[in-house]
């Protein structure tokens, strides 16, 4: 005979969600697999979910939960889906979808429209900022070009002024050389005139004869 199983009872957490079209029962079953589970519903609308799985040491974990199907739901349309992460979804569709509250619907529509306007405003603001950045970049580039142009003109003016100054200095240098040459010639002429005068004063034959032709004799005392 097979040994009797030893069970460890497990109480899963669950949550019931609803919207205008359905109710959804969410049951958290970590460690379980789809083949470990069993979902049943009786004629009274009682939904029963149970399961068991092996544990280490020959023990088994098991659970059993019963839920009453909410009123207004289609019991024949209930569907079960088990995710790989160990979550069971039991979807119970409504027989007649609920109509949304007109005020709630209007508020939702207004909120959606406001969100669209906000997104459009944000996009327009972003576009304006990009245009301003591009204009600033173009202005900066133009100022750099103007500065370079002005700098080049200043360099040309400086070079022209330098050439003029050099020409003026060269003219002054030439004028100074001419004056120095004239001064040297004048000094030379003065020197020659002085030598000639001294030679005339020392040379007796250079004495001028009397107007009547007399000759002066020399005496001893």
From TrEMBL:
The chain crosses the membrane at residues 180-199. Residues 5-109 form the SHSP domain. GO terms for cellular component: plasma membrane. It is a single-pass membrane protein. Residues 106-158 are annotated as: Disordered. Keywords: Cell membrane, Membrane, Plant defense, Transmembrane, Transmembrane helix. Pfam families: HSP20 (PF00011). GO terms for biological process: cellular response to heat; defense response. It comes from the Eukaryota. Gene3D superfamilies: 2.60.40.790. Residues 106-121 have a biased composition (Low complexity). InterPro entries: A-crystallin/Hsp20_dom, HSP20-like_chaperone. It is found in: Cell membrane. Residues 122-143 have a biased composition (Basic and acidic residues). CDD domains: ACD_sHsps-like. Its main location: membrane. Belongs to the small heat shock protein (HSP20) family. This is SHSP domain-containing protein. It comes from Hordeum vulgare subsp. vulgare.
């Amino acid at each position: 005979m097979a040994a009797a199983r030893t069970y460890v009872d497990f109480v899963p957490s669950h949550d019931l969600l609803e919207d205008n079209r359905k109710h959804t029962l969410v049951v958290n079953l970590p460690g379980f697999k789809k083949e470990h589970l069993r979902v049943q519903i009786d004629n009274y609308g009682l939904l029963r979910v149970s399961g068991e799985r092996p544990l280490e040491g020959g023990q088994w974990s098991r659970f059993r939960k019963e839920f009453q199907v909410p009123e207004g739901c289609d019991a024949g349309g209930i569907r079960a889906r088990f995710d790989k992460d160990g979550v069971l979804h039991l979807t119970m569709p409504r027989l007649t979808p609920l109509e949304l509250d007109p005020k709630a619907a209007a508020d939702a529509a207004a909120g959606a429209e406001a969100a669209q306007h906000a997104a459009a405003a944000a996009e327009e603001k972003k576009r304006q900022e990009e245009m301003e950045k591009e204009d600033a970049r173009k202005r900066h580039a133009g100022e750099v070009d103007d500065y370079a142009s002005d700098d080049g003109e200043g360099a040309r003016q400086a070079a022209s002024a330098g050439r003029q100054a050099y020409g003026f200095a060269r003219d002054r240098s030439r004028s100074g050389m001419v004056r120095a040459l004239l001064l040297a010639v004048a000094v030379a002429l003065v020197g020659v005139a002085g030598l000639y005068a001294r030679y005339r004063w020392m040379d007796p034959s250079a004495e001028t004869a009397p107007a009547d032709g007399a000759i002066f004799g020399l005496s001893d005392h």
